[in-house]
Write a structure and sequence with these properties.
Creatine Amidinohydrolase; binds zinc ion; 9 helices; 373 residues; 24% strand
Length: 373
């Protein structure tokens, strides 16, 4: 993972430790998932070999890493040191020993474990640390991670602008006569060409397939007069992009344009509602109300948005029942949709960051349907 040398890892670790003290957590154990790169700049591959940051409330943080992966770790001695393990070592015992060294006199009473850790390692660690009570590290790290610092917001903005540019490029590309899969591959190629390191998804859902929000691009041939849902994104310098725009081949089907006007108004209402101090569920309700008022309520079948950062979907979720209050630094999608089974679908998605001055929309691509041939 490429990161600025000045990325605030030490600061993040300090804040995690303060929360551990607050919550009475002796040690945090972080493996695969986004907590580890957020704290160290290193993303563990989801391997059968254990990678684990042992982060005690006080004292040195140690990254236990398979020896063959160690060359990929950028050491940050001010934040953590590395202990590589050999193929014949037992990494679970190594982690348990480090836990005992960090908490002399019985080892840690409480450990917060990353929520993506393989179940196998959780079970083995629980056996190796029988006197330790395990809880979810998300309670410790989640509230911190969901407030994006300026470095992170700019990383999200760069990723957003990259996919915005792809929307513009696709304006001049043919759709009719091509399969969804072919167009999807083109999106994927452009995602990489525009500086992402990974393609996360490239949904291309044409005609009636558009009514399935996460439709997998198929061999269906796109035809004249169809609307095509294009929802795509990737990961650039660790941070994710995610945008949905509608492409229309020629003229849209009957009734589609009226519904799209409603969708645009709903999305705008969602973005404008996304202000610090407002509960997440209110943001969802703002977008949903517009769609419901126009009689499409039953066709908006998912939440309005999801948080985004190191992960494509993370806290905070814009969904009914989520009373979490939007705070400056929260980054999330606003992506209402209308899906009429058997006929067509539509979604419009931008990434928004809440700021003290209101919502900051990271995506700048035009929101009108893109008319293509
Ligand atoms: Zn989605
Ligand atoms: Zn999306
Ligand atoms: Zn999304």
């Amino acid at each position: 993972m490429e990161r600025s040398e000045h990325a605030p890892f030490v600061d993040r670790m300090t804040r995690v430790r303060a929360r551990m003290v607050e919550l009475g957590i002796d040690v945090a154990l972080l493996s695969v998932g986004a907590d580890l790169p957020w704290l160290t700049g290193y993303e563990a591959m989801p391997l059968e070999r254990l990678t684990m940051l042992v982060l005690p409330r006080e004292g040195e943080a140690v990254l236990v890493v398979p020896r063959l992966e160690a060359p990929r770790v950028v050491e940050r001695p001010d934040a953590f040191t590395i202990v590589p393990w050999n193929e014949t070592d037992d990494p679970v015992r190594l982690v348990a020993r480090l836990c005992h060294e960090a908490m002399p006199g019985g080892g840690p009473a409480t450990a917060a474990i990353g929520d993506r850790t393989w179940g196998r390692f959780v079970l083995e660690l629980q056996q190796a640390l029988p006197h330790t009570r395990f809880s979810a590290a998300n309670e410790v790290v989640g509230p911190l991670r969901r407030i994006k610092d300026p470095v992170e917001v700019e990383a999200l903005r760069a990723a957003a602008h990259a996919v915005d540019a792809i929307v513009e490029e696709m304006r001049d590309r043919p759709f009719a006569g091509r399969t969804e899969a072919d167009v999807s591959r083109e999106f994927a190629r452009r995602i990489l060409e525009h500086g992402h390191h990974v393609v996360n998804f490239a949904i291309v859902a044409s005609g009636p397939n558009g009514a399935s929000p996460h439709h997998e691009a198929s061999e269906r041939v796109i035809e004249q007069g169809e609307a095509v849902v294009c929802d795509f994104g990737g990961t650039m310098h660790g941070y994710c992009s995610d945008i949905t725009r509608m492409f229309v081949v020629g003229r849209p089907p009957d009734g589609w344009a009226d519904a799209y006007e409603v969708l645009t108004a709903a999305q705008e209402a969602g973005v404008q509602a996304a202000r610090a101090g407002v509960p997440c569920e209110t943001v969802d309700a703002a977008a949903r109300a517009v769609i419901a008022q126009h009689g499409y309520g039953e066709f908006f079948i998912h939440r309005t948005g999801h948080g985004i950062g190191l992960e494509a979907h993370e806290d905070p979720y814009m969904v009914q029942g989520n009373q979490l209050v939007v705070a400056p630094g929260h980054a999330f999608s606003i992506e209402p949709g209308i899906y009429v089974p058997g006929r067509w679908g539509m979604r419009l998605e931008d990434i928004v960051v809440a700021t003290p001055d209101g919502p900051d929309r990271l995506n700048v691509a035009a929101r009108e349907p893109v008319i293509v041939t």
